[in-house]
Structures are given as C-alpha cells and as structure tokens.
Amino acid sequence: MRQLSDKKKTVQQWRGLEKKLVDSAELLSMSVSDVALQTELTKELDELASQIDELEFRLAFSGQYDARDAIITIHAGAGGTESQDWAEMLMRMYLRWAERRRFKTEVLDTSPGDEAGIKKTVIAVKGEYALGYLKSEHGVHRLVRLSPFDSDHARHTSFALVEVMPEAESDIEVNIKPEDIKIETFRSSGPGGQHMQKTSSAVRITHLPTGTVVSCQSERSQHMNKDYAFKILRARLLELEIEKQAAEKAKMKGKRIDAGWGNQIRSYVLHPYRMVKDHRTDYETSNTEAVLGGELDGFINAYLRSIMGKRE
C-alpha cells in the first residue's frame, strides 16, 4: 500500500508539472508585447525546470529497498593502526553527512583499534531514502597521506571497506528460526571501565545455516547488545538474500560477480596534493577537508545520476 501511495504521488506531481508547463507556454506565446509578463513567466518556467530536474533525480531511487533506512558497516583494511584510523575518519564523515541531512544515526557497535581508530563499526542511519543515497558509498575507500603514526612521517596508503545494507523492516522478510541461531556472551574488550571488564555483557550471535556471525559490545546492558546484534543480523541476512538474487540475475546474463573487495571506488589523497576522486563517475574535488567533514552530496549525486535508467 505504501509503494502504491508513493507511485500515485509521483504521477500526480508529474501531471501537475505538465499542466503548469502547458499553461505557462500558452501565456508566454500570448505575451509578445508584455515585457513584465514575459519576465514573470520566464522566472516561473525556470522554477518548473528546477522541479522537473529534482523529480528526474528521484528516478535514481529505483531500487527495491531504496526508500528504507540503512545500516553502514565500516571495516578497517590491512595496515594496522593506519587503516584503523582511516576507518574512524570514515565513521565521522558519514555521521556528519547524516547530521547535515538531518538524518538520525545510532552507532550499534564499535570495535576499538589496537592503538588508535577502530577495527569495525556498525551505524544505523534513519531518514527518507537513506539507503538510496548511501548505496553510492558501498565499496573500498582508499586514503593516501603522510602518516601521523610514522616517526619518519612517510607517505602511507590505507584501505577501508564500507558496506551499506537495507534495514530489515520485519522478521517476516528474514525468517530466523530459534534452532538456527547460537547465542554466546563474552566480556567486552576495549575501554569501558570496570563494569565492562567484569561482566559478560557482549553478545555474539551465529546464524548456523549461513555461518553469519555478528557481535555487539557497545552497550553495558547485555539485553541491549542482544537487540542490536539481532538488528544487525537481520540486515545482514537480508543483504545475503539480495546478493543471492543479484547473482542469479547475473548468472542468467552470463556475467561474473566478484564478491571480493575489488578495486577502490574512491580515493582520498591528502599528499602530495589534495584531491578526492570517485573512480566510477570521475567526479572530483580538491576540497578534501569539506568532504571528510561530511560534504558528500556532490559524489552521491554524480553516482545516482550515472545509474539512472539502469536496473540494479
């Protein structure tokens, strides 16, 4: 019903714009000698063109789950402290981007790094078409900079994997049978004080049929960690189902699906020059500070426009 309502709303918007354009065009042809009216109608046409451009852009949200909330998982790549610090930089970047859009965020789980940064984090992002926007970020992100952790201040290249999944809306979508899961508790690692060291508040859930393992240790309460872990598990199982369907479609087309890390989708270069470049769209900017501060709309919009009309 919600999908039907959304489609009706979209049709009404297009029909409304069509009528306004026809009316404005007729008035414009009749106002040859009326300069003031021509100026006013030209301004109105410009506004209509802007509205049409916005509606055309929404066509990029053609995926089955694009209207949903998203769950972002960031994994530090090989490279120890360097990559772990890079993963934390990406975490801040997405939190700030979401804040700019007034999306709600919730850090579901974070594994601290050995010396600095994080090994992994899971973030829930809630907002209109959150997944539709953030699907552009799925892939490997590469950082090139002078290392703040190297005594020689040498240039280092770090990698981090960003996964973006739709949040499962109900248990019906991902039927998790009690006999298919194994729940374990363990002591939380990393900072957290005496409470987290003495109690087994962290939760690990294993989905036996798929071998999927998720854990959560960010909260002091075992109950909350368990709830968050199940939330992550449902999203991950839904993602597996989506990948399975995509693989079947690709198999029918004769294409090979690479499920590995693959090549980076975007490079963030801070030395010897400053540049952030998306390798899929060639969109780039030298304002690296703004990008790392959450100004991602240029990259997201370029990616969404590049996939318009393509089936996902």
Plain-language structure description:
- By secondary structure, this protein is α+β, with helices and mostly antiparallel strands.
- The chain has helices at residues 2-30, 35-58, 81-100, 130-134, 193-198, 222-253, 288-292, 297-306; strands at residues 70-76, 104-112, 118-126, 139-146, 155-166, 181-186, 202-207, 212-216, 264-269, 275-278, 284-285.
- The chain folds into three domains: 2-58, no CATH class; 70-167 and 265-306, Alpha-Beta Plaits (2-Layer Sandwich), CATH 3.30.70; 178-253, 2-Layer Sandwich (Double Stranded RNA Binding Domain), CATH 3.30.160.20.
- It is 42% helix and 24% strand.
- The strands form two sheets. The chain has an eight-stranded mixed beta sheet, with helices on both faces. Strands 6-7-8 form a three-stranded antiparallel beta sheet, covered by helices on one side.
- The chain is globular and about 80 Å long.
State the main characteristics.
312 residues; alpha+beta; Double Stranded RNA Binding Domain; 3 domains; eight-stranded mixed β-sheet; three-stranded antiparallel β-sheet; 42% helix
What is the total number of structural domains?
A: 3
Strand content: 15-25%
CATH topology type of the largest domain: Alpha-Beta Plaits
Strand order in the sheet with the most strands: 2-3-1-5-4-9-10-11
Helix content: 40-55%
Taking the sheet with the most strands, its summary is: 8 strands, mixed
Radius of gyration based on Cα positions: 24 Å
Number of strands: 11
CATH classification class of the largest domain: Alpha Beta
Q: Average the pLDDT over all residues and give the rounded result.
A: 84
